[in-house]
User: What shape does this take?
Amino acid sequence: MTRTKHDDDADGVTEVDVLIVGAGFGGIGMGATLARRGRRSFVILERAAEVGGTWWYNTYPGAACDVPSHLYSFSFRLKPDWSRIFATQPEILEYLRETAREEGLLDHISFETEMRQAHWNAAESVWDVDTSAGRYRARTLVSAVGHLSEPRLPSIEGVETFEDTKFHSARWNHDADLEGKQIGIIGSGATAIQVVPELAKVASRLVVFQRSAPYITPRPDRAYTDAEKRMFARLPETMREEREGFFWANEGRYAQRRGTPSLVKAAADVALAHLRRQVDDPEIARKLTPDYTFGCKRVLKSDDYYPTFNRPNVLLETDPIARVTPRGIETASGTEHDLDALVLCTGFEATDLPIAHQIFGVGGVSLSERWSGGMQAYATMAVPEFPNLWIINGPNTGLGHNSAVYVAESQMAYIAEALDYLDESGLDELEVTEAAEETFMQMLEDTARGTVWLDGSCRSWYVDQRNGRLTTLWPDFAHSFRAVNGSFDPRPYQVDQLALP
Amino acid sequence: MDLHPDAVSDVIAGPNGGVRYHDTGRPGDFRSTVLLIHGTGGTTKSHFGTLFPMLAARHRVIGVDLAVPDGGVEVGDLVNDVVAVLEARAAGEPVALVGYSLGAVVAAAVAADHAPLLSSLTLVAGWMRTDSQQRLRNTVWRKLFERDQEALREYMTFTSYGSPFLASRTDAEVRALVDARELAASLPATMDLNRRIDISAEVGRIVTPTLVVGAVDDQMAPIRHSRLLFGAIDDARFAEVATGHAVTVENPAYLFKLVDDFVSAPSAVPPGTVLEPITV
Assistant: This one.
C-alpha cells in the first residue's frame, strides 16, 4: 500500500489507495486522519480552486457557524486563538486552509477537479473513477461532499424570467452592487437569518418572503479576550474545558427533541420570549411566530434577525409567492413587489444527494437508484452493493443540536480502522450485508419514534417525503453516534468467517 | 404527567404515610428498570426533570418523591419508602437504583439490606458520614432560614452550583436561578437529618455492583466523600463530573451517559476502576 498518485500506468490512469471526494471539513479531516496514521497513498478531489467546501462556497455577508468554534473544530487541531465564540466564515475557512497546509495535504489535493462518474470494477475489486482531470483507479472511495453542498433552487413559476440581479446565497455575486437597491430574499432558514440583517443595512427596501417562520433562540456570541486566548494556549486543558462545556450543554438540549412536553415547552418559551423582546410591532411578531412544534425544523440562533424587522426599510411578506415576474414578485393575493435584486436563500439538496447519481456499484446500479426510496446506509457510511465505499456526512448524520465535526470525526476513525482491517485481513473488498443495513435502519427507526421530527407538525428536510423516514438526521445524542458508529467491526460485512480474528 | 408522556403518577401507602412515585412502566415494556431517588428539598421533577426523560428513552424509569413529615425523619424511614415502591411496582425484578445527594445516602442504605432487589447501584454526589465542613454549612443554613430567607435562597444557589457554572451565566440568569428556588416545607426536617448522617456501617455491607459519581466543584457533598465511598464499597467503580453539586441540572447529558452505560452492563468494568473522562 505504498502506491502514490504518481503511479500513472500506460493508459494515463492514476492508481491510488484511497480516493476522497471533497475538500471541506469531511475531506480535509479524512486526509489528515490518514496522513497521521502514516498513509501516503490518497488523493482528494476538489471541484473548487481551494479547500473549504461549504465554507468556501458560502461567502454571503454575515456567514457564520452557529456551533461554537472551539467545538466546531477538529479534536486533533484545537485552536486557542478563535476570535469569537461563533467565528465567521473567513476565520473558519482560514482554519481549514491552515489545517490542509500544516497536515501536509496540499500535495494530495487535485483542485478544480470534478468527479464525473465512479464505477465499481468487480473483476479487480477497485473503483474506476472518471474526473475532469483524468482517470483514477482506487481501492477505496470516500465521499466527503456533505449533504449541504448543492444549492436547491425554488420551483416557483417564472423564477427564470427575472431580469435583474439574481443569485443563490451559496453562490454570492460579490460584483453585484446592492447599495440602495430594492432587494427580495426568498427563504427564512439558517442562511436567511444571517443574510437579512446585513442586507437591511444597504438596501433601500428589503422584502423577506417567508413561507414558514423558524424558532430562533439567543446567540450568546462575544469576542474572546487576549487573556483568554493566551490562557487557552498556555493551559490547553482550559481550552478543552471550554470545548467540552459547549458539547455537553448541546447534549443536554437533546432532551428537548424527545417529545417531553415540559422540556419542549420550556425551550419554545425561550425562543418566543426572545421574539417578543426583540420585535416592536405585535402584528409582525405574530407573523414571525412558528406554527409547529419546537425542534421539528432546525432551531436557529440569532440576536440580530428579529430586530431587523423594526427597521422602516424592511418588510416581512408572508403571503405566498404566486410567481416571479421579470421585474419582481407577485404574491397570491395580487401584491406586486418591484425588485432590483433577488437573493435565493432556499437551502440545499439534502435528501437527494447529487453525488449519488454519479456512483455505480455492483452490476452498474447507481447509488441514487438504490436510494430511490430514500437514502440509507449501514453505520451511516456503508451501502450493500457498493464495496469499499464509505460516505462521510451522508444519511442520518445531521444533528439537530450538536457539532457536525464531531460526527464526521467519528466516521473518519471508523473508515481508518476499516482500511487497516482491509490491509491486515488480506481481503480485496468489504461489502456490508443487506441484513446488517436493514437491522441498522430498524434500530434508527425505533430510536426516532417519539421525537419531535416525526410528530408531523412541520415539513422539513430532515424527513424524506418519499418514505416518511428520517434520512438526514441522527435521531439521538451526538455521543451515541460515536458509540454506535465510531469504531469498525467486520462482522456486518460479507467476509469469510475464517478471516475474522 | 409533565415529567414524561409515558409516566403515570400515583401514591402508595408506605409505613410512614403516602409515597408518591412516577412510573413509565407499561404492560409489554420489558426494558430494564431504573429507579431514581432525588436529594434534599427536591422532587423527581425538580432534580431529574431532564435526566428522567433521557433515561426513559431506553429504560423503564420510576421516580420516588421522598416523604418527609414535619416531625422529623431518619434514613430508615426513607429506606422504607423506597422499598415500599420497589415491592409495589417492581416485585421480583431487580432494578438499577440511582440516588442523588441525600438520595444517594438512602440508596446506599437500601442496597446494604435489600441486595436482592437491586441489579446495580449508582451513588451521585453522595456521602457516608456528615463532617464538620458540612455541619458548618448546615449551621449557616439554619441561621439564614430563621432570619433571612431571601439571603438563604441566594446562599443555597451559591452552594448548589459549581463556581464555573455560575460564573458563565449573566447576572440576570443567576438572579433567575435564585428566584426560581422554592423552599420546600420538608427542608428544615431534612436539613436536620443531614447534620446527623452516618451510614458507615451499612455501606460496608453493600455487595451490589456500584458506580460512584463525584462532582469536582461540589461544595455540599465535596468530592472527598465520593472518593471515600469508592474506597468503602467492594464492588465499586468511580467517575468524576466537572460540575458543582447540582450535577443533574448542570450537566444531565454527561450523567446520563455514565448511568446509561453503567446500568446496561454493571460488571463490564471491573471493581476498583476509575473511569476515564469522556473526551469529545
User: Anything to note?
Assistant: The two ends of chain A are 22 Å apart (CA to CA).
